[in-house]
Amino acid sequence: MNIYRQKSRVYKQNSHKESLVGQQPRGKGRNGVVAVEFALVAPVLLLTVLGMVQVSKMLDTKHLLTMAVREGGRMGAMDRTGLVAEGSTSNDKLRDDVLHFLQASGISTEGVTVQIGAKDDIDVDFNLDAPENHLQLFQVEVRLPYDLGLGSVAGPDDFHLSARVVFRNGKATLIQ
Questions:
Q1: Which helix (H) or strand (E) holds 143?
Q2: Residues 6+ away with beta carbon under 8 Å from 4
Q3: In a 3-state reduction of DSSP, which class is residue 121?
Q4: pLDDT in tens, 73-85
Q5: DSSP 132
Q6: How confident is the model at residue 12 (pLDDT cuts 50, 70, 90)?
Q7: What is the signed CA dihedral for 48, 54, 60, 61, rounded to 10 degrees?
Q8: Closest by alpha carbon to 138, among 114, 162, 160?
């Protein structure tokens, strides 16, 4: 075995191959290591990326749900003269507005519940049209069943997104 210098690199000469001194020849001792490393890292990387996509989708849905509740509460707090159809109530109009907002945002309204209740207890019905409720606080809560996309691990009723807002039942008029 001869050692010689060529262009400031030190080589050792074997009978059939040359390699840099101190390094193993390429391809020897590392066969398949990259494939094994990729097989170990790829599932973790894939789960992380898919998890980030799912969380961003859930946050977007939560944001749209909050906007829908806020718009419904705003409708309940303003002068509703001429907005409510004959034979309908302001509570019905508020529910319909929230559901239409969600549908227009691309969210399925199947299983969505819209509750209008007293400020302290959502389970106590609050009639927006009742004169005794004028200038009283009310709350609107919307619950949306959310599918996490986990298949059989979590059913459609296992996870809900909800949003709640409190408004004053007033007759605020819009000035044009």
A1: strand 137-145
A2: 10, 11, 13
A3: coil
A4: 888 888 777 787 8
A5: G
A6: low
A7: -160
A8: 114
Amino acid at 4: Y
Residue 126 carries which side chain, given as an amino acid letter?
Answer: F
Report pTM. 0.69
Contacts of 146 (CB under 8 A, 6+ apart): 58, 61, 159, 160, 161
Q: φ, ψ for residue 3 (rounded to 5)? A: -110, 130
- Give the residue from 72, 90, 57 showing the smallest Cα distance to 164: 72
Q: Among 64, 52, 168, 55, which residue's Cα sits nearest to residue 112?
A: 64
Say which residues have a Cβ less than 8 Å from residue 80's Cβ, sequence separation at least 6: 90, 93, 128, 171
Mean pLDDT, range 117-125, rounded to an integer: 89
Residue type (1 letter), 34: V
- Token pair 């309204």: residue: 109
Bridge partners of residue 19, in order along the sequence: 12
- Measured at the alpha carbon of residue 21, what is the angle toward residues 19 and 23, in degrees to the nearest 5? 70
Q: 55: how many CB neighbours lie within 10 A of its CB?
A: 10
Give yes or no for residue 44 having a pLDDT over 80. Answer: yes
Q: DSSP letters of 37-54?
A: HHHHHHHHHHHHHHHHHH
DSSP state of 174: P
pLDDT in tens, 142-161: 999 887 766 555 555 668 89
Overall average pLDDT of the 122-151 stretch? 85
Geometric angle at alpha carbon 63, from 59 and 66, rounded to 5°: 135
